[in-house]
Amino acid sequence: MPPFPLDAFLASLPWVVAGIVALLALTFAAAVRQHRHSVMDTVWGPGFVVVAAVSWVLSAGYGDAGRRLLLLVLVAVWGVRLAVHIGLRARGGPEDPRYVDLLAKAPGSRNAYALRRVYLPQGMVLFFVSLTIQVGMFAIGNLGWLAFLGVLLWVLGFVFETVGDRQLTQFKADPARRGTVLNTGLWRYTRHPNYFGDAAVWAGLYLVAADSWPGVLTVLSPAVMIWTLAGKTGKPLTEKAMSGRPGYQEYIDSTSGFLPLPPRRAGAKPR
């Protein structure tokens, strides 16, 4: 088996960075025009699609064709679905309260502050997390059983994320349920089926890349994504925002915090 094409991979990195910068520049221009920097959330998924597309083009003739196409398709389906969901949810609405709170701290220009505190950090995280995809595109060797397990895990995560988002959208659309807590469907087994699904998607993508050397070395990339979802900005911020809602503490007491598990009986220790 030929060695990993390190020179070609390193040569692709500036082009990947250029793709990310171009996307963020367009997003920033649109956000300034709309006076709504939460548009960045909509392009989060497509940012990974851009990385995957650039890496797919530049890895032609180097990486395994099957793995390259598989990674491109999986990332594109996930990224486009996420963008459509977030875009429809935010359409016509005001600025996200998280961004309002953040930009209220701006010592000068809010746009310049957003550029430093929103776009630059998210661009850096996007690049680091996507290293799994970038390396996987150049990985040598045919697809094996680990990649097959990765696809199964990706499918599980995609179903949880898609169905969970759909159930939440339908729940919020019912005026009679306003101010209540969704505790049915997938939300009966985990308080965050969408975040769990996202984590499973990225764990699955990692397994596809790790099926061939040196993809296994990119473990920190999905780890950062999963840590962000479960312990940093995903689950913690959502639960903080929901903490004052009637019935939410009872929901916490009965429902798993992240991994899907059977509902707990009354009096059982929270997980």
How far apart, in Å, are the first and last alpha carbons?
46 Å
Summed over residues and divided by their number, the pLDDT gives a mean of 92
> What is the chain-wise order of helices and strands?
HHHHHHHHHHHH
Based on CA atoms alone, the radius of gyration comes out at 20 Å
What portion of residues is helical?
55-70%
Residue stretches low in confidence (pLDDT < 50, at least 5 long) are none
Main sheet specs: none
Helix- and strand-based class?
mainly alpha
Report the sheet-strand fraction. Answer: under 5%
Count of folded domains: 2
Number of strands: 0
Put simply, the count of helices is 12
Structure description:
The chain is mostly helical and 271 residues long. Helices cover 68% and strands 0% of the residues. The protein has two domains: 1-142, no CATH class; 144-271, no CATH class. It has twelve helices and no strands. The longest helix is centred in the first third of the chain and has 29 residues, at 6-34. The radius of gyration is 20 Å and the shape is globular. The N and C termini lie far apart (46 Å). The relative contact order is 0.12.
Topology:
Blueprint: H1 6-34, H2 39-42, H3 44-58, H4 65-90, H5 97-103, H6 110-129, H7 131-138, H8 145-172, H9 193-210, H10 220-232, H11 235-242, H12 248-254
Helix pairs in contact: 1-3, 1-6, 3-4, 3-7, 4-7, 4-8, 4-9, 7-9, 8-9, 9-10
